[in-house]
Design goal:
Elements (H helix, E strand, L loop, with lengths): L1 E4 L9 H10 L5 E6 L11 H7 L7 E6 L7 H7 L3 E5 L6 H10 L3 E6 L17 E5 L15 H14 L4 E5 L4 H10 L3 E4 L1 H4 L4 H13 L1
Helix pairs in contact: 2-3, 6-8
The structure holds D-xylitol-5-phosphate and zinc ion.
């Protein structure tokens, strides 16, 4: 089980502090939400910020690209120090090429599906995925309510992984709190992204501990 705090809900004026805080508290990945105002109706951060935070943590930077034409930016994110690059299947007609580009840059390749997208849409790239990110909210903003219908897709991905011997981790993102994390874990999720639950709290360390505790019961 891995916890990936999303810095979307961190204090952007104190990113280094907020990243080091969750690293000390036992986080496993730092989840970086990249939005372009086109693929999703919000604008956040780009490769320059990834490069700036790279030296402040030893944790893998899990970059979630919610952008159109992701292929055009894969080299920039790889160069900036991303350890994982997640690309939405809905964002490109060339998901296979995008994943190949990520792997050729020696970065772990993640493929992401929105709540309205079936697992079948990524069936033919599962063998090359290091991670599959199942959105449990419609991407764009932190603090939204968990969409329970997405859990079925986690089960499906877990079953396919076992049947065909795929190696991907299954990550869930959106509306993750201890209860929803447990539901996703029971379905087969390995990595749990949490933004508002961790950062919109007086004590993010406690929130990580509570989440971990819920997932080890
Ligand atoms: C949503 C982002 C998420 C977001 C999760 O578009 O991909 O990573 O930060 O935030 P919470 O945990 O608040 O739902
Ligand atoms: Zn995300």
């Amino acid at each position: 089980m891995k916890i990936a705090p999303s810095i979307l809900s961190a204090d952007f004026a104190n990113l280094a502090r907020d990243i080091q805080l969750v690293e000390k508290a036992g986080a496993d990945y730092i989840h970086v939400d990249v939005m372009d105002g086109h693929f999703v109706p919000n604008i956040t951060i780009g490769p320059a910020v990834v490069a700036a935070i790279r030296p402040v943590t030893k944790l893998p930077l899990d970059c979630h690209l919610m952008i159109e034409k992701p292929e055009n930016y894969i080299p920039d994110f790889a160069k900036a120090g991303a350890d994982i690059i997640n690309v939405h299947v809905e964002a490109t007609p060339h998901i296979h090429r995008a994943l190949q580009m990520i792997k050729n840059a020696n970065v772990k390749a993640g493929v992401t599906i929105n709540p309205g997208t079936p697992v079948a849409a990524i069936q033919h790239v599962l063998q090359m995925a290091d991670l599959v990110l199942v959105m449990t909210v419609n991407p764009g903003f932190g603090g939204q309510a968990f969409i329970p219908e997405a859990v079925e897709k986690v089960k499906e991905l877990k079953a396919l992984k076992e049947e065909f011997g795929y190696h991907y981790e299954i990550e869930v993102d959106g509306g993750i709190v201890p209860d929803t994390a447990k539901i996703c874990q029971a379905a087969g999720a390995d990595v749990f992204v949490a933004g508002s639950y961790i950062y919109n709290a007086p004590d993010p360390e406690d929130r990580i501990a509570t989440l971990k505790e819920a997932l080890t019961q």
